[in-house]
Design goal:
0% strand
């Protein structure tokens, strides 16, 4: 069953862009999901999982930066302050952690975050592009505002496990760290930065999770009343 709201006769340039953006992202994440699932089912091992998924993953997770721009310019109603931590937390896990330290590729966190991220994003971007057309099936709305209850904690657990797996290599190599002496008279420890980053999940995760639960009550509650 679809929402009863009638689609607009004409679409604005912004809406046309959002349709193509969201279709493109949903297809990209579907590829990641297929690659990850195929490897886990047929290989039965974490070895090679990163190689099977990393090329597409890097592209489509990085493109999520545009969501911050969409919020900032008012193209979508999402709060910039809610979008920024969700986007950048993933980018930190992706680029300076997963892309830099090969030992993270055999962490249990990798399949957890790959499945959680890809399932979430296939549903989310599909919901977004159909929502522009005002033709969202009720089942998709239900999935969009229900599966996160499990997928969000699973994804966060995967991210933290990957960060944890990277810490010994970070401590050994001093990657991305700045030590004295140097011309800037400034030091930076990526090791401790990662620890602080992981600890920030403690206050941030409950806030974001409760926000999503609130959105679920509002959306599914109003959808149920309309169907009645």
């Amino acid at each position: 069953m679809f929402s009863k709201t009638k689609p607009s006769d004409t679409l604005s340039t912004g809406n046309i862009y959002l349709i193509f953006y969201n279709i493109f992202l949903s297809l990209g994440w579907l590829i990641v999901l297929i690659q990850a699932t195929h490897h886990l089912v047929f290989e039965g091992s974490l070895t090679g999982l990163w190689d099977s998924t990393s090329s597409v993953l890097k592209i489509f997770q990085t493109l999520a930066v545009l969501e911050i721009v969409h919020s900032a310019v008012g193209l979508v109603p999402s709060s910039v302050m809610m979008v920024i931590p969700q986007v950048f937390s993933r980018l930190i896990v992706l680029w300076p952690v997963l892309c830099t330290f090969p030992n993270t590729h055999t962490s249990l966190g990798l399949p957890l975050l790959l499945i959680a991220w890809s399932v979430t994003e296939v549903i989310r971007y599909s919901f977004y592009f159909l929502n522009v057309l005002k033709q969202v099936p009720h089942m998709l709305t239900f999935l969009r505002y229900t599966l996160f209850i499990v997928l969000y904690p699973v994804g966060v657990t995967g991210e933290l496990l990957c960060v944890y797996a990277a810490l010994p290599a970070v401590a050994e190599t001093h990657a991305y760290s700045i030590t004295f002496p140097n011309a800037l008279n400034f030091s930076f420890s990526f090791y401790y930065a990662l620890i602080i980053f992981a600890l920030l999940y403690l206050p941030c995760f409950p806030i974001l999770y409760m926000h999503m639960l609130s959105q679920r009550r509002k959306v599914l509650g109003s959808t149920h009343k309309k169907r009645e």
